[in-house]
Design brief:
Blueprint (H helix, E strand, L loop, with lengths): L1 H45 L4 H11 L5 H17 L2 H31 L4 H42 L28
Length: about 190
C-alpha cells in the first residue's frame, strides 16, 4: 500500500516537472525569437550584409546561455570587416551586442520566464549569477530549467496544502479489560 503512494507521488512530481520544463522551453523559444528580432533590427540599422541570416543564427544560438550570443557575434563581425566598415562598424556592432545582451538578461528573459514559466524576477536574475559563480558553465546552463521546475513543484505543493488532508482509516479503539460496574442484568422470572 505504501509503495503505491510513493509511485503516485513520483508520477505527480514527474508530471509537474515535465510541464514546467515545457513551459521553460516555450519561454526560451519566445526569448530567442525576441533576441533574433532585436538582432535583425540592429543589423539592418547598421547596414550589415546578410542581416536576416545573422539574426536567424543569433536566435538559434541563443539557446546556449551567454556563449551563444557571443558566438552569434562572430558572423556579423566578419561581414562588417569584409564589407569595409572599419573600426567604426566593429565598435557599433559590439555596442549593439552589449545592448542586446543587457536588454535580454535584465528585461526580456526575466519577464518572459515570469509570465510563461512562473519564475519570479529576482530568482531569474540572481540564481544564474550564483550558479555561474559556483558551477561556471553548467550552473548558467541549468539555472533557468532548474528554476522552472523548482517553482512549479513549490506551487504544486502550495496548492496541495489548501486541499483538506487525506482521510485516514483509524482502527476502532480497543476497550479496556476492566468491566464497568453498572447495574447487574435483571432476570425476569415468570
Amino acid at each position: 500500500m505504501a509503495t503505491y503512494g510513493i509511485q503516485s507521488d513520483m508520477r505527480t512530481h514527474l508530471r509537474v516537472s515535465s510541464r514546467a520544463l515545457r513551459r521553460w522551453f516555450l519561454a526560451q523559444c519566445f526569448d530567442s525569437l525576441c533576441v533574433g528580432l532585436l538582432w535583425l533590427a540592429g543589423l539592418m540599422l547598421l547596414g550589415v550584409p546578410w542581416a536576416p541570416m545573422w539574426a536567424l543564427l543569433a536566435a538559434l544560438l541563443h539557446f546556449i546561455p551567454h556563449f551563444g550570443s557571443l558566438i552569434a557575434l562572430v558572423g556579423p563581425l566578419c561581414a562588417t570587416v569584409f564589407d569595409g566598415n572599419g573600426w567604426q562598424g566593429v565598435l557599433s556592432l559590439v555596442l549593439l551586442y552589449i545592448i542586446i545582451v543587457l536588454v535580454d538578461s535584465f528585461f526580456l528573459q526575466p519577464r518572459i520566464l515570469r509570465r510563461v514559466a512562473r519564475v519570479p524576477l529576482w530568482a531569474s536574475i540572481l540564481l544564474p549569477l550564483v550558479l555561474g559563480y559556483f558551477l561556471s558553465f553548467w550552473g548558467v546552463l541549468l539555472a533557468a530549467p532548474l528554476l522552472a521546475v523548482f517553482f512549479a513543484l513549490r506551487d504544486h505543493r502550495r496548492e496541495g496544502r489548501e486541499l483538506p488532508p487525506p482521510v485516514e482509516i483509524i482502527p476502532p479503539a480497543i476497550s479496556s479489560p476492566r468491566r464497568h460496574h453498572a447495574s447487574p442484568p435483571t432476570v425476569i422470572e415468570g
